[in-house]
């Protein structure tokens, strides 16, 4: 076993499971506190309640930094890295606060499912951020795998006749099973996530998108646009465009289908068998998933604002709906580039598969690909 591997293992042993569970529990408790602060603030909308809410928010976020400080202990971690961890937790917890603040203002019958779905995901994100904190604490970004580890990986792949691709100083080689899981699992995840949001109990998402779009329309164009909610209909939400009539709203209009596609790809992108390359893959996948989802969500709001405004000024709905929806698909290309920055494993796995197939067909001896 190499010195690098032994060093990392020994350091991680120093962090007891109990210490990690305690830290994660305290951080999660803060998240739940902020959620309930937001939820119950709506019942006391007053100046005193607002001041008290701001004070409590500040105290909870301050305690987050205290927890981070004591968890780091005597480890040589940069203040900048501690700051990043605090920001990640602060954003995560403020999102929980916004969820709590939003639910009492919503009209949807199943509005409480907003929290039932999102709060557990935020709690999981708390743990992923903790893993990132451990990465900062116990592994240096400047450390590189020793030649012994490199040669061991190459020997294993040579014996199996599989290529090793180098990219930005890291090595990528994959198992056949991981590629099969990607090919079969990604479409399944896409459909499952989409149908989850197309289920009536999750139509709270419809309300959020509709109301944010209406707010943006009135803010930008002061057109007096409103929305309507009819629980008896299959898709209960619709836009009321002044002087033009009603435009219905369905799950496909949320833009969630694009998020689902990349969700399947990102979650099931194969991991390299090189441990050094693979050490922060969970964090990179999480970051890529969050950033791509936010981009798609904001672009979808912008798309609807443009469509509804053109409809408001006189264009036929059928002429603008499909054309602008198709034009907005270029964002997918940007997301692919973003994915390659954070998760090069996806594109490299396609190149790796092509190289392996070509090698099997031609029967050439194994050579390291660069």
The main β sheet shows up as:
3 strands, antiparallel
Helix content: 55-70%
Using the CA coordinates, give the radius of gyration.
25 Å
Instruction: Domain count, please report it.
Output: 2
Q: Describe the global form.
A: flat
Number of helices: 14
What structural class do helix, strand and pairing data support?
Answer: mainly alpha
Write down the overall mean pLDDT.
85
Q: Main sheet: which strands, in order across?
A: 3-4-5
Poorly predicted parts: none
What are the secondary-structure elements, in order, as H or E?
HHHHHHEEHHEEEHHHHHH
Terminus-to-terminus distance: 27 Å
Number of strands: 5
DSSP strand content: 5-15%
Describe the structure.
With 370 residues, the protein is mainly α. The protein folds into two domains: 15-143, no CATH class; 146-370, no CATH class. The protein has helices spanning 3-14, 17-41, 47-72, 79-102, 113-138, 147-160, 176-197, 204-221, 256-268, 275-278, 281-312, 317-327, 330-342, 345-362; strands at 165-167, 170-172, 226-229, 237-241, 245-248. The protein has a three-stranded antiparallel β-sheet with strand order 3-4-5, with helices on one face. A hairpin with a 3-residue loop joins β4 (237-241) and β5. α8 crosses α11. The mean pLDDT is 85.
Sum this structure up briefly.
The protein is mainly alpha-helical.
Quickly list its features.
2 domains; two-stranded antiparallel sheet; mainly alpha; 70% helix; 370 residues; 14 helices; flat
């Amino acid at each position: 076993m190499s010195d690098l591997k032994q060093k990392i293992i020994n350091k991680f042993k120093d962090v007891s499971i109990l210490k990690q569970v305690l830290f994660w529990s305290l951080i999660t408790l803060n998240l739940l506190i902020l959620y309930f602060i937001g939820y119950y603030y709506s019942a006391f909308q007053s100046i005193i309640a607002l001041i008290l809410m701001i004070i409590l928010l500040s105290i909870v976020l301050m305690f987050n930094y205290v927890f981070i400080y004591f968890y780091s202990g005597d480890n040589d971690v940069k203040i900048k890295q501690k700051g990043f961890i605090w920001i990640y937790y602060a954003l995560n917890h403020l999102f929980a606060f916004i969820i709590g603040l939003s639910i009492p203002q919503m009209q949807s019958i199943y509005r409480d499912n907003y929290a039932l779905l999102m709060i557990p995901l935020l709690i999981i994100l708390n743990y992923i951020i903790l893993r990132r904190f451990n990465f900062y604490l116990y592994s240096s970004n400047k450390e590189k795998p020793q030649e012994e580890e490199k040669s061991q990986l190459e020997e294993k792949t040579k014996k199996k006749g599989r290529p090793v691709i180098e990219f930005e100083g890291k090595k990528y080689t994959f198992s056949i099973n991981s590629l099969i899981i990607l090919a079969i699992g990604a479409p399944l995840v896409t459909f499952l996530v989409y149908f989850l949001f197309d289920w009536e109990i999750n139509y709270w998402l419809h309300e959020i998108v509709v109301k944010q779009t209406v707010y943006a329309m009135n803010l930008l164009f002061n057109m007096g646009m409103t929305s309507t909610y009819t629980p008896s209909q299959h898709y209960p939400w619709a836009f009321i465009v002044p002087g033009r009539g009603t435009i219905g709203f369905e799950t496909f209009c949320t833009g969630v289908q694009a998020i689902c596609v990349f969700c399947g790809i990102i979650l099931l992108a194969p991991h390299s068998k090189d441990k050094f390359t693979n050490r922060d893959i969970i964090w990179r996948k999480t970051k890529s998933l969050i950033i791509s989802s936010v981009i798609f969500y904001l672009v979808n709001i912008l798309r609807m604002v443009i469509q509804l405004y053109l409809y408001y000024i006189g264009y036929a709905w059928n002429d603008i709906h499909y054309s602008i929806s198709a034009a907005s698909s270029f964002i997918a290309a940007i997301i692919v580039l973003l994915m390659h920055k954070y998760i090069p494993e996806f594109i490299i796995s396609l190149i790796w598969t092509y190289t392996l197939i070509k090698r099997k067909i031609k029967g050439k001896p194994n050579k390291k690909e660069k």
